Amino acid sequence: MTEPSVVAVARDARHRFSKPVQHEITLVAGLGVEGDAHFGETVQHRYDKRRTPNAPNNKQVHLMHAELFDEVAADGFDVAPGDLGENVTTAGVDLLHLPLRTRLHLGETAVIELTGLRSPCTKIDALGAGLMKRLIRRHDDGSVERLAGVMAVIVTGGRVAPGDDIRIELPAEPHEPLEPV
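Above: the chain's sequence. Below: its structure in token form.
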């Protein structure tokens, strides 16, 4: 298995679906990715901001596992880092199955805490018709698995760049599963 690491980082000052890949990003504790449209103490995602404009920003940073790109490529979708709007693309981390409040140490100083699963939206289909449906897996028991990455808040700021190591710190038990945020 691949050692947990950062594959790519991205940010965009404007609210667009995909984010351009950068050489590095700076995470700011309690606020988000410096220079990103979702930076702030209160919710910055357009849909959520209309509904609850003063809610805390529990979606400061979006992480996506690079392994998903290979999975969807097998179905004919060409997806690369930043395309799904993520700030940090990882390898070697089973993001979707980590418990709530897991802390990820990114690089030398940055620490983030997982707040939940990202719910895929219809804008994903701009990358290819049917991609959104591909990012929602329905199981025989009726359960739904969302594959569009995870959201987190920044506990300790720092610079994050491709090639940085990731260290996983699980929360105290009992563990709670990630739910959509």
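The longest strand covers residues 110-117.
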